[in-house]
Write a structure and sequence with these properties.
Blueprint: E1 52-56, E2 59-68, E3 76-83, E4 90-96, H1 120-126, E5 130-134, H2 146-160, H3 162-165, E6 167-177, H4 179-197, E7 210-216, H5 225-228, H6 242-247, H7 255-260, E8 274-279, H8 287-300, E9 304-309, H9 321-338
Parallel strand pairs: 4-5, 4-6, 6-7, 7-8, 8-9
Antiparallel strand pairs: 1-2, 2-3, 3-5
InterPro entries: AB_hydrolase_fold, BD-FAE-like_dom, GDXG_lipolytic_enzyme
GO molecular function, one term: hydrolase activity
Protein name: Alpha/beta hydrolase
């Protein structure tokens, strides 16, 4: 017979309530499992991959593969542009989009490339290189280092699922334009920098092996942004600037934080080789920023190929079609070379 259930906290002066028919209560040593939380984050490492589309001959596209879930925020996804022939694992380029850390689409290389058919990522896949285009938390959702953390988690996801995708996790080149170039450089440089600073520190989960990095017109030294641009273009104490919104504070008001989020400050001898492309006429991100990164890498003993492109503005505005193709060819050639593939995409952009 089951025990009666008290209607109030235990008190010897209160009479017991009548027994209610029903199943006996579970013994004290049995824990009843909580119902699953429908809003709990999913495991991105076990989710099924999206179905493949075929946007161009010899290319498969897996659009919207989720690689990370953040509490109370949208899940993060990437697109995968894959060579159709993956009987042997293919090398990988990881492209990070720009947009001032506050906007942008993961599949957009900029206005100059939107008319291309096939598009740039399909073309690279036709060259035998897979392309992953991850998104990241924008500055309206989270401040630094959230954006680099998201790119790094994408690299971990790519290694974990490389066998399913058919890519070689030990041949990966990071590539980004504008703010995405900043994040690509940060993700490429941070591991070697941190290992040099704390060689006995804890190991982070392994991502793909970065064998090179390409930056297009990227901010690289937020400590010097104010001196590299006229005050009419950039005020280092403006809390509303794109840089301040990403950092969570104006660069001039927290130089330590600005340094920690500057690729030029993370250069070390263990950095992978860099290809740095920047238009000489860029007024949004001064060409001096490219020079600062190249100088820092060279001083650290790392390889840096700096190419300042005549006539090029930000996002290659004002650049001739011939020169634009030169920048593209230089990038493809570098990616293929760092991936260990023979040949390449041409001589590329002039130095």
């Amino acid at each position: 017979m089951s025990r009666s259930t008290p209607s109030t906290p235990s008190d010897s002066t209160v009479s017991a309530a009548p027994t209610v028919p029903g199943p006996a209560p579970a013994p004290d040593d049995i824990r009843v499992a909580s119902p699953p939380d429908p809003l709990a984050p999913e495991d991105a490492l076990t989710l099924p991959l999206p179905p493949a589309a075929r946007p161009a001959p010899g290319v498969e596209l897996l659009r919207g593969a989720h690689f990370a879930f953040r509490p109370r925020l949208r899940p993060l996804a990437m697109d995968l542009w894959l060579p159709e022939d993956r009987r042997r694992p293919v090398p990988l380029a990881v492209f990070v989009h720009g947009g001032g850390w506050r906007a942008g689409r993961r599949d957009d290389l900029g206005e100059r490339f939107r008319p291309w058919d096939p598009g740039p990522f399909a073309r690279l896949a036709q060259e035998g290189v897979a392309v992953a285009c991850p998104e990241y938390r924008l500055s309206g959702e989270a401040v630094a280092p959230a954006q680099v953390e998201d790119v790094t988690e994408a690299l971990v996801w790519l290694r974990a699922r490389s066998g399913e995708i058919g890519v070689d996790p030990d041949r990966a080149v990071l590539w980004g334009e504008s703010a995405g170039g900043h994040l690509a450089a940060m993700a490429a440089l941070a591991p070697a920098h941190h290992h040099a600073s704390a060689p006995t520190g804890p190991e982070d989960p392994a991502g793909v092996t970065v064998t090179g990095c390409v930056t297009w017109y990227a901010p690289t030294d937020l400590r010097s942004f104010g001196t590299d641009h006229p005050r009419s273009r950039f005020d280092p104490r403006d809390p509303g600037s794109s840089e301040a919104r990403m950092l969570g504070v104006a660069p001039a008001d927290d130089t330590k934080r600005a340094r920690a989020n500057s690729p030029a400050a993370l250069a070390s001898a263990g950095a992978p080789p860099f290809l740095i492309l920047h238009g000489r006429e860029d007024t949004s991100v001064a060409p001096k920023q490219a020079e600062r990164l190249a100088d820092a890498l060279g001083a650290a003993g790392a390889q840096a190929d700096l190419r300042l492109v005549d006539g090029g503005g930000h996002r290659w505005e004002g650049l001739s079609e011939e020169a634009l193709l030169g920048c593209w060819d230089a990038t493809v050639h570098f990616i293929r070379a760092r991936a260990g593939l023979d040949g390449g995409g041409g001589e590329g952009a002039p130095k």
